Amino acid sequence: MRLILPILITLIFSLQTYAMDKNSNSFIRVLLGDKRPSSNELEKIKKVAAKTIVNGSAYHGEIEIWKGNEGYFLINVIQLEDYVKGVVASEVGIHWPEEALKAQAVLARTYAVAHILRNRTKNFYDVTSSVFHQVYKEDEGTEEVEKAVRETKGQILSYNGEPVMAFYHACSVEKTEEPKEVFGKEYPYLKSVEVPSTPSPYTLWEKKISFEILEKVLSMTKISYVKIASYTTTGRVKELEFSDGKNKKLVKATELRRLLQWTALPSTMITSIRIEDDGIVFEGKGYGHGVGMCQWCAFQMAQEGKNYKEILQYFYPGTEINIINENN
């Protein structure tokens, strides 16, 4: 039986424990690590109140150990507001402008509540701690993050009384992406919008990916040619065509990013492609899927005097802020 988690795991026992109603949204169940079980046929074998260190990242709260056919999994059961602090500190710069941190706190909480409502009754966890959902590591206790979460406590973004799909990403250039181009679905409160220039390090980027890696993820024996086959409505790359000289393979750009573990190809806003002896060089703009709030744009808007409500309304028009509590 192998452990489906990073190698180093330390449990530091404490006296803290939680007595939580399973229907409450005052807490959240977080699957630690980036590996998810292929089925829900697992058995909870132990529950402890402990500080857990997973490859250097610390997690407080209740820890559940689950056993399945694929190995062991750790669930961190933690108060929702503490989880939001961890997400804000992990997702954006901890010393960012106050209003940008507040906007991120509302979105992190909204995203969490939406997944609690969706997953609590049918899964043994609500979200993962990885980029598959929201990046979550324990908040380091910075005053800025604490203040942003405290001053937006319980606030979520809603549309027609329901939590929105709070998609957000690191950086867009010129405009954000339409959700149907990435997630295959339209939302009345998510439209492509023009965005300001930002100081993001990913405004422009260049990435070389070796033939060996590309051929492996695309299940091709040889790649000799690649071209952009189509674009989305906002000008991002929709499909790429790879060829070995005889056979062609059409690949969605969003799928290529997933196969490359996201970071190898920062975004689908690819501006040029060139083939070199040892790989393919992609040049582009922005970072992330491009849907919803652009975090670096929120940074710039806050610098220019916009408050968090104005920032959220710009990226999610027609929505409103509601207050939740554990009885919702």
From TrEMBL:
Pfam families: SpoIID (PF08486). GO terms for biological process: sporulation resulting in formation of a cellular spore. Coiled coil: none annotated. InterPro entries: Bact_Sporulation_Assoc, SpoIID/LytB, SpoIID/LytB_N. Residues 71-159 form the Sporulation stage II protein D amidase enhancer LytB N-terminal domain. This is Cytoplasmic membrane protein.
